[in-house]
């Protein structure tokens, strides 16, 4: 098995008196899709934000590419090669696809833009992901569908040679065909050797693309197991009760916070 | 690429339909689709301008005379220039209500320096002078804090000019006015971007305050005349020589053609998205021919008494506006800074997450707006030949915002270009000038101007709604 690209070891995080994450372990391997599931309030977003540098962890270790790292902010996360695609898709409607993909990291010398270079790179990236459905890379983002917008946001991560991509509910607001399209893209990201973390509420999506499933229950990581060893029912039990048969928390009482 | 498309993904079209070149017919159809989808740009303003010109030509025999058209340009230039700076502020969805009276302050400082023979300390009095210098120092500090180096440098130049007590010189006085404008912008900008007061409130307060400063500098009922200075007076009233006019034509039209065509063929050669060559070519040809005709007409003697006086040449305000237009457009379209301005205006949160320094961008647009407004104030003061306590007050700001909006700049941010301000300024100047010729009185002029602005804002709001509905 490949070495993990990103690992959380015993991460704790509190917001004031509320202990949100209890000794959370998570392993993300390159070339794999790791699904992060859990009920509302289980701590999924907190895990993502801790990795993205938006929240600081209280204790525990974040290991990136074999090295323990400290991530003080989003910029440092990006420098390491960690890219987050948020649910509300941070795209500028009034800019086109190329402009959005390069926003904040425009190419060019001395403050002047090199449009030719950026347009070519954007087109190559989209082509490498077999991204379709867009008439021109100079289309304004405002005229794209939800799935296409999601695609642009994800392609941005590839363009910048990220090593880990965190996707927060990428299919939440999408129709059937668009969901299909985004899931295919998620799979291709992993096939290109990136470590992908997929947060989702949708069990169908998770079982379709994930290689491993990590379940959070009330701030505890109750199980991270290969998808093939789990059934849909078991995952639902893990999400709702924290245990399923022999898997998960040993004693359900422990879970009372 | 189409061949590789797996059949199981039949619902998905191919990025292979990504086209870089279209036929002229396709390009025109795409353009019409965009217009129908609510992306009107300057189209309504241009149609409105055409309509106004036709109406006034029919209604007044003097409207379409060369002399009146040149006069119209000079009349509208000041407001138009202020509007060009305001475009930057409007692009962020912010507003600068103080740009008018701030420009009045810069004009007053310039005129005071001229009238008092360079003795600003004597002209202002010790207290006012010290407060003034103190504010300039604050402006430098603010600009340094947010790391707007150009703003800090310009404001520092104003301090140096004041401290050295330079002798009266029209060029230095104009530089002083612009630098004071920059300093004012630094103060406005820091209050909005760092202290976090809404721009509407900050600039409303400053609108009043700067108006008071102008009154303080000039004195109640006073007027500072600058018409004795040949240079200051010529800014809005002088013309290029006939030869100079043709040089301007060659530089401007030739430069435009060279830049547009070389860019177009460069894109085609590199296989990038480009408009059809026919369309680009005809656009360039149209601009070159139109400017040639305009230049020729300006070189004809347009004096009302052609036997006694000769008035020829392109007014100086034309090259002034052209330079600002070129620089402003270049900054917005071709620099990282301009891209970030659009990004912050389109989605501030997205820009912030992408690593754009939002407070710096937000402050910088006010610095630009006030600096450019100072240039506008030089032009409008030159036109009337004096600065009075009402400089920049009254309708100046409202007309400037109106010009930008009428030209197609969105009040909601993220959409607009510097050329919008020029076209909108032309519309407003035409309304003012045309109705003035019909001698209908200020009541009607104000009502009509107000309605034109209302119409433009409605077009903006409706096109936005349509854009939402059609997904453009």
Automatic annotation (TrEMBL), chain A:
<dbReference type="InterPro" id="IPR003593">
    <property type="entry name" value="AAA+_ATPase"/>
</dbReference>
<dbReference type="InterPro" id="IPR050107">
    <property type="entry name" value="ABC_carbohydrate_import_ATPase"/>
</dbReference>
<dbReference type="GO" id="GO:0005524">
    <property type="term" value="F:ATP binding"/>
</dbReference>
<feature type="domain" description="ABC transporter">
    <location>
        <begin position="6"/>
        <end position="243"/>
    </location>
</feature>
<dbReference type="InterPro" id="IPR027417">
    <property type="entry name" value="P-loop_NTPase"/>
</dbReference>
<dbReference type="Pfam" id="PF00005">
    <property type="entry name" value="ABC_tran"/>
</dbReference>
<protein>
    <submittedName>
        <fullName>D-xylose transport system ATP-binding protein</fullName>
    </submittedName>
</protein>
<keyword id="KW-0067">ATP-binding</keyword>
<keyword id="KW-0547">Nucleotide-binding</keyword>
<dbReference type="InterPro" id="IPR003439">
    <property type="entry name" value="ABC_transporter-like_ATP-bd"/>
</dbReference>
Automatic annotation (TrEMBL), chain B:
<dbReference type="GO" id="GO:0005886">
    <property type="term" value="C:plasma membrane"/>
</dbReference>
<keyword id="KW-0997">Cell inner membrane</keyword>
<feature type="transmembrane region" description="Helical">
    <location>
        <begin position="273"/>
        <end position="297"/>
    </location>
</feature>
<feature type="transmembrane region" description="Helical">
    <location>
        <begin position="239"/>
        <end position="261"/>
    </location>
</feature>
<dbReference type="Pfam" id="PF02653">
    <property type="entry name" value="BPD_transp_2"/>
</dbReference>
<feature type="transmembrane region" description="Helical">
    <location>
        <begin position="309"/>
        <end position="332"/>
    </location>
</feature>
<keyword id="KW-1133">Transmembrane helix</keyword>
<feature type="transmembrane region" description="Helical">
    <location>
        <begin position="148"/>
        <end position="166"/>
    </location>
</feature>
<dbReference type="InterPro" id="IPR001851">
    <property type="entry name" value="ABC_transp_permease"/>
</dbReference>
<comment type="function">
    <text>Part of the binding-protein-dependent transport system for D-xylose. Probably responsible for the translocation of the substrate across the membrane.</text>
</comment>
<keyword id="KW-0472">Membrane</keyword>
<keyword id="KW-1003">Cell membrane</keyword>
<dbReference type="GO" id="GO:0022857">
    <property type="term" value="F:transmembrane transporter activity"/>
</dbReference>
<keyword id="KW-0762">Sugar transport</keyword>
<feature type="transmembrane region" description="Helical">
    <location>
        <begin position="392"/>
        <end position="411"/>
    </location>
</feature>
<feature type="transmembrane region" description="Helical">
    <location>
        <begin position="43"/>
        <end position="66"/>
    </location>
</feature>
<feature type="transmembrane region" description="Helical">
    <location>
        <begin position="72"/>
        <end position="92"/>
    </location>
</feature>
<feature type="transmembrane region" description="Helical">
    <location>
        <begin position="121"/>
        <end position="141"/>
    </location>
</feature>
<feature type="transmembrane region" description="Helical">
    <location>
        <begin position="172"/>
        <end position="192"/>
    </location>
</feature>
<protein>
    <recommendedName>
        <fullName>Xylose transport system permease protein XylH</fullName>
    </recommendedName>
</protein>
<keyword id="KW-0812">Transmembrane</keyword>
<feature type="transmembrane region" description="Helical">
    <location>
        <begin position="443"/>
        <end position="462"/>
    </location>
</feature>
């Amino acid at each position: 098995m490949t070495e993990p690209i990103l690992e959380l070891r015993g991460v704790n995080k509190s917001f004031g008196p509320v202990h949100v994450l209890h000794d959370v372990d998570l392993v993300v391997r390159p070339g794999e899709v790791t699904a992060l599931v859990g009920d509302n309030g289980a701590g999924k977003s907190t895990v993502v934000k801790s990795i993205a540098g938006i929240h600081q962890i209280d204790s525990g270790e974040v290991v990136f590419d074999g090295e323990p790292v400290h991530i003080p902010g989003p910029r440092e996360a990006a420098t390491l090669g960690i890219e987050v695609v948020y649910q509300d898709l941070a795209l500028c409607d009034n800019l086109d696809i190329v402009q959005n993909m390069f926003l904040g990291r425009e190419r060019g010398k001395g403050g002047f833009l090199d449009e030719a270079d950026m347009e070519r790179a954007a087109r190559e990236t989209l082509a490498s992901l077999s991204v379709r459905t867009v008439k021109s890379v100079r289309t304004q983002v405002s005229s794209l569908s939800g799935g296409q917008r999601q695609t642009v946001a994800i392609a941005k991560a590839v363009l910048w040679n990220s090593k880990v991509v965190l996707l927060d509910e990428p299919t939440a607001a999408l129709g059937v065909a668009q969901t299909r399209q985004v899931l295919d893209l998620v799979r291709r990201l992993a096939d290109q050797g990136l470590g992908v973390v997929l947060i989702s509420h949708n069990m169908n999506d998770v079982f379709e693309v994930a290689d491993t499933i990590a379940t959070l229950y009330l701030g505890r990581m109750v199980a991270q197991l290969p998808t093939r060893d789990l059934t849909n029912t078991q995952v639902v039990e893990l999400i709702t009760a924290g245990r399923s048969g022999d898997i998960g928390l040993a004693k359900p009482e422990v879970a009372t916070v | 690429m189409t061949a590789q498309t797996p059949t199981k993904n039949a619902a998905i079209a191919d990025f292979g339909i990504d086209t870089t070149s279209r036929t002229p017919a396709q390009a025109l159809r795409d353009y019409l689709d965009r217009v129908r989808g609510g992306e009107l740009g300057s189209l309504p303003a241009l149609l409105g301008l055409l309509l106004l010109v036709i109406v006034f030509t029919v209604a007044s025999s003097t409207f379409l005379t060369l002399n009146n058209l040149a006069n119209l340009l000079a009349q509208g230039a000041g407001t138009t220039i202020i509007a060009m700076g305001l475009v930057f502020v409007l692009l962020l969805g912010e507003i600068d209500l103080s740009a008018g009276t701030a420009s009045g302050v810069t004009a007053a400082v310039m005129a005071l320096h001229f009238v008092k023979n360079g003795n600003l300390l004597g002209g202002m009095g010790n207290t006012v002078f010290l407060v003034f210098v103190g504010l300039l120092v604050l402006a430098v500090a603010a600009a340094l804090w947010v790391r707007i180096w150009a703003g800090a440098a310009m404001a520092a130049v104003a301090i140096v000019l004041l401290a050295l007590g330079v002798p009266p010189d029209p060029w230095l006085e104009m530089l002083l006015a612009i630098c004071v404008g920059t300093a004012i912008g630094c103060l406005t900008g820091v209050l909005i971007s760092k202290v976090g007061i809404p721009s509407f409130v900050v600039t409303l307060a400053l609108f009043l305050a700067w108006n008071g400063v102008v009154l303080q500098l000039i004195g109640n009922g006073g007027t500072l005349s600058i018409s004795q200075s040949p240079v200051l007076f010529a800014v809005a009233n002088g013309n290029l020589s006939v030869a100079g006019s043709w040089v301007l034509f060659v530089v401007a039209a030739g430069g435009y053609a060279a830049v547009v065509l070389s860019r177009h063929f460069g894109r085609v050669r590199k296989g990038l998205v480009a408009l059809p060559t026919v369309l680009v070519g005809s656009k360039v040809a149209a601009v070159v021919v139109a400017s040639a005709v305009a230049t020729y007409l300006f070189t004809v003697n347009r004096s009302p008494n052609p036997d006694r006086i000769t008035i020829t040449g392109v007014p100086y305000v034309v090259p002034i506006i052209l330079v600002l237009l070129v620089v402003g457009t270049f900054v917005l379209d071709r620099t990282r800074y301009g891209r970030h301005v659009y990004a912050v205006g389109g989605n501030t949160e997205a820009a912030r997450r992408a690593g754009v320094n939002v407070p710096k961008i937000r402050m910088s647009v006010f610095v630009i707006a006030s600096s450019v407004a100072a240039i506008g104030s030089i032009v409008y003061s030159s036109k009337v030949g004096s600065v009075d306590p009402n400089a920049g007050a009254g309708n100046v700001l409202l007309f400037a915002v109106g010009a930008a909006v009428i030209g197609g700049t969105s009040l909601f941010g993220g959409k607009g270009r510097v050329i919008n301000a020029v076209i909108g300024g032309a519309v407003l100047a035409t309304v003012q000038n045309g109705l003035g010729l019909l001698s209908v009185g200020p009541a009607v002029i104000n009502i009509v101007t107000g309605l034109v602005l209302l119409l433009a804002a409605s077009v903006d709001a409706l096109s936005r709604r349509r854009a939402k509905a059609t997904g453009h």
